[in-house]
Amino acid sequence: MALYIVEADCISCGDCEPVCPTQSITEGPVVFKIDKRTCTECEGDFDVPQCVKVCPIDNCILPLEA
Amino acid sequence: MSQNVCSRELALRIALAARALPDTDAKRLLSVLAECTHAVMTESAVASICLDEFKQANDGFFGGYSDQCLLNALSILKNTAADKVMPAIKAYQEGELPNSVRMACASDDAIHANGQFATCPWFMVYQVNAEEARLIDIRHTEIPEGLWVQDKNSYRAELIQDCKVLYVVSVGGPAVAKIVKQGIHPIKLDEPQSLVDILSELQAVIADSPPPWLAKAMGVDASERFKFDRLATG
């Protein structure tokens, strides 16, 4: 259970990084990335994933199919 | 490039301004301008000349002229007059420039990217790749008479729907949504910049390593694009 950032769509605005309650988002070599080991999809912290909420691009942050 | 060469359009405007001033030839006006701009005849230097400065330069050559007349000449020089000097458009055939992206700039004077999305009179449309930045169209944002549009900003966004990138100096939230809906990536500038500078900056990015979203907009093949794929996903 985790989210991932679609690289072709991410514009590296960095808006998602500070809103992550588990500090799972970091700036990678190309675009931002989500650590799938620590991402909780904000379960327990918020009703909706905060990164998805603040991301300005549609369908840029999607659930990682297990 | 724009730093040391007076552009064709600026040269034309200097000649037109000289004609608008009585008993002034282009040579005389040039010497006044050279003094006002400290001999650096760039668009931005000309754009910053104020009326007093203009009057006093060259031992007050224009001192005896009426303000009205001088302001008119200045507006021609700065390209803010009603009759504007527009840069020449070059035809573009689809696919002529490989690895290129089509971009639009909201502009008030056809020289700078200084326009507000909702109010600028034109979108300057360029086809840009690493080697060339070609002005392919100037889209007038004025709604043609008789055409009824429900939403002005949607109309403006549709006007440039073939572009992938749009540079603006300011744009409102709802307008951004309409721009994004057309598949255009809006870029907000902190302050107005000359079109020449923006184009060379974009060309440098394209030549170097375009960010994935830009590469996608340029239609670069997905396999080409993800050079850092494994590196990025970790």
Summarize the structure in words.
The complex is a heterodimer of chains A (66) and B (234). Chain A has helices at residues 16-19, 50-54, and strands at residues 3-5, 25-27, 32-34, 61-63. The longest helix of chain A has 5 residues, at 50-54. In chain A, the strands form two sheets. Chain A has a two-stranded antiparallel sheet with strand order 1-4. In chain A, strands 2-3 form a two-stranded antiparallel sheet. Chain A is α+β, with helices and mostly antiparallel strands. Chain A contains two helices and four strands, in the order βαββαβ. Chain B has 234 residues and is of the alpha/beta class. Chain B has two domains: 8-77, no CATH class; 101-225, Dinitrogenase iron-molybdenum cofactor biosynthesis domain (Nucleotidyltransferase, domain 5). Chain B contains eleven helices and seven strands. Chain B has a five-stranded mixed beta sheet. In chain B, strand 5 (165-168), helix 7 (173-181) and strand 6 (185-188) form a beta-alpha-beta unit. Mean pLDDT of chain B is 84; it is low at 229-234. At the A-B interface, loops of A face helix 9 and helix 11 of B.
What distinguishing features does this structure have?
heterodimer; A: 66 residues; alpha+beta; Alpha-Beta Plaits; two-stranded antiparallel ribbon; two-stranded antiparallel sheet; 2 helices; 4 strands; 14% helix; B: 234 residues; alpha/beta; Nucleotidyltransferase, domain 5; 2 domains; five-stranded mixed β-sheet; 7 strands; 41% helix; elongated; disordered C terminus
